[in-house]
Amino acid sequence: MEGSNSKELVRCYCGEVAELTTAWKPSNPGRRFYGCRFYGISSACKFFRWYDERAPERSKEVINGLLRHLNDYEKEKHPKQQKGNCLIFILVILLVLLVIALFFAFTVSVACLDGRKLMLH
User: Fold this and answer.
1) Cα dihedral sign, 89-90-95-99
2) Buried b (16+ CB within 10 A) or exposed e, 76-96
């Protein structure tokens, strides 16, 4: 049923409406197919039917190359993202310490205004 009408309901062997999914394996990157919606469950019926026609080899090479570049970029970006998360964590800790210090300073000043003697050593 390659290139079938998108409005057509395809049913799997279970009698359920099959899900339209995209394959990302190197042999068929970006190619869509119908499969049983219970895939991965032991009671799935193993239904499979291509939705898209087979892509030319050059298209597969280009898509796979782009996916490799994207994966490389994500790997390179990850350490920078961790460093950013660490800086945010440090800033939050500093902010909490500042709030505690301000609260303590306010408490001491209120105690002094109440006429209590505060002895600091």
Assistant:
1) positive
2) eeeeeeeeeeeeeeeeeeeee
DSSP 93: H
Residues 50 and 53: their CA atoms lie apart, in Å, by: 7
At 106-120, the pLDDT tens digits run 776 666 665 655 555
89 three-class SS = helix
Contact criterion met (CB below 8 Å) for 52 and 60: no
Which tokens in the block code for residue 43?
């009671």
Q: What is the dihedral of CA 63, 69, 75, 78, to 10 degrees?
A: -90
pLDDT reported for residue 72: 87
Which pTM does this prediction carry? 0.53
**Dihedral sign, Cα of residue 19, residue 20, residue 22, residue 28:** positive
**What residues pair up with 17 in beta bridges, in sequence order?**
11
Give dist(CA 52, CA 2) in Å, integer: 5
The answer to whether residue 7 scores a pLDDT higher than 70 is no
Contact (CB, 8 A) for 71 and 24: no
